[in-house]
Amino acid sequence: HGTSRINEQGHLEIGGCDAVELIRTFGSPLYVMDEALIRHRMRQFMEAFESTNLPFQVAYASKAFSTLAMCRIVDEEGLHLDVVSDGELFTALKAGFPPERIYFHGNNKTPDEIQMALHAGVRLFVVDNFVELSLLEHLAGQAGTIARILLRTTPGVEAHTHNYIQTGQEDSKFGFDLASGQVQEAVRQAMASPNLRLEGYHCHIGSQIFEVEGFRLAVQKMANLVSECRESFGFTPSILNMGGGFGIRYREEDTPLPVSRYVDAIAEAVRSTFPQHVPEIWVEPGRSITGEAGTTLYTVGTIKEIPGVRKYVSVDGGMNDNPRPALYQAEYEALLANRALEEPEETVSIAGKLCESGDMLIWDISLPKVKTGDVLAVTCTGAYNYSMANNYNRVRRPAVVFVRDGMADVVVERETLEDLTRNDRIPERMKKEHV
Ligand code: LLP
Asked: What is the ipTM of this complex?
C-alpha cells in the first residue's frame, strides 16, 4: 500500500526509506508513517466531495493519530480538525492550526475545556447532551460570545464492518436520542438561547464500516428530523455532519469500499432526501486517513517453541504500542522487513514483551524462518496505535517517524527513561539520601 515496496536488498522500503536503516537510525520499535499516503487519503476525500458538487467539509478526527506534525499536514491539506479534549485542542493550536477550522466533540467536556475552546475561538461545539447545552450557554454568556453548535444525535443506526443494526432507541452514552424526542427538545432549547447559535446536526454510526447502507439510513433519519424541526420550530440546519467510520484494509480479506463510494452514497442520499435547502455535508474520518499509512517496526528477540503446539516469537513492543489486538481482537498482517522476499516457511505467533498473556500482536502468521534480530513490520498501524499507546510495565513509547521521498523525520521522540519518572514525586518521609 502507499509508497511501500521491496528494494534491491530485499528490504521493506516505505516512502523511499529502507526499514532496516530506519531501525538502525532511530531505534526499535518504531512507528513509521507514510506521509504521501496520508496526504493522498485526504485528497481522495476532498476530490470525491468536490465531484458531487454539493457543499461539504472534511475534518480529520484527531483521536486516530494526533501530533504537532500531523496537525501541520491536516492544515496544509485544507481539512478541518475534530478534537475531543483539551489535549487534542492544545496540540492543534500549538501547531498553528487555525481555530476557525477546529471543532470540539465529546460527551463530557469540562468547564475548563469549554472555556479554553471559547477563548481560542473554535469554529463550533458538537453538543452531546442537556448538561453540556446549559453549561455552554452559561459559559458563552459569561465570555460575552455566541457559541455555534451542532447537536449530536443518536440516530438508531449502528454500523460496524459489514453489517448495521437499527434500534428504536440506541443505548449509547453519546448524543441526544432521536426516538424519544430528546433532539427536538434540544433544538427548542438551543434556539431559545441568545448565547447559542444552532447550525445543524451530527451523527456517527460506527467505525471500520464496509458498506454504505448504514450511511444512507442515517441520512434518511436526519432528513426526517430536519423536516420535523422545520415544522415545529422553523429551524433549517445549514450543516449535516455524518461522522466518520470509513473502513480500511487491515488484512487481505478486508473489503473496504473506495472512499468515493462512501462519499457518493452519502451525497446521493442527501440529494434525494433534501430536495431544497441542501445542508453542507461534513464528515470526520480518522482511521481511513492514517490507518494504512502506519507501519510499526519491531526487533525480534526471544523465540520459544512448544513442540507440536506453537512457536512464540517475541518482539520489543506489544500491547503498549498497539493495544488493539488485546482490546478488540484486532488482526494484523506482518512481514520480515529485512528478508521481505523470502518465502513463508513456518507459522508463528507474535508476542509482545509485556507481562500479560493477552499481550499477543498476531496469532498464527506465516513467515520465513524467523531469527532473533530480524525486523518485523506490522502494517496498517497508523490509526489508534500511537494515540492509544500507554506505558504499561513502564515500557517507553516508541518514536514516530514521517517518511517521504527518501526523507525520514522524527515527529515524536522516543520516550526516555527519565520521561517515565518525570511526574513522579517521593513524599519527604520516604526520601532516601541519594534519591
Ligand atoms: N467521529 C466521531 C464522533 C467518532 O466517535 C469517531 C470515532 C470518529 C469520528 C472517527 O472514526 P473513524 O473514521 O476513525 O472510524 N479505538 C477504536 C476506534 C474508536 C473510534 C471512536 N470514534 C479502534 O482502535 O478501533
From this structure: 0.99
Q: What is the pLDDT of residue 39?
A: 98
Q: For the chain, which residues make up each domain, given as ranges?
A: 5-33+291-416, 35-289
Distance between CA atoms of residues 80 and 61, nearest Å: 9
Cα–Cα–Cα angle for 379, 242, 171, nearest 5°?
Answer: 90
Do β-strands 17-18 and 12-14 pair in parallel, antiparallel, or remain unpaired? antiparallel
Q: How far is 17 from 229, CA to CA, in rounded Å?
A: 55
Query: Does 355 participate in catalysis according to the annotation?
Result: yes
Q: Which residue has the cell 471559547?
A: 118
What CATH number was assigned to the domain covering residues 5-33+291-416? 2.40.37.10
Residue 435's pLDDT is 57
The length of the chain in residues reads 435
The Å distance, Cα 62 to ligand 1 centre, comes to 9
**Ligand 1 test: best mutation among 242, 287, 321, most atoms within 8 Å of CB?**
287
| Phi/psi of residue 394, nearest 5 degrees | 50, 45
Contact predicate 134/180, CB 8 Å: no
For residue range 227-250, what is the model confidence (pLDDT) as tens digits? 999 999 999 999 999 999 999 999
Dihedral, CA atoms, 18, 22, 24, 29, nearest 10 degrees?
A: -130
Q: Would the CA dihedral through 61, 63, 64, 68 be positive or negative?
A: positive
CA 411 to chain centre: 17
Is 3.30.450.20 the CATH classification of the domain at 35-289?
no
Say what the pTM is. 0.97
Domains 5-33+291-416 and 35-289 share a fold: no
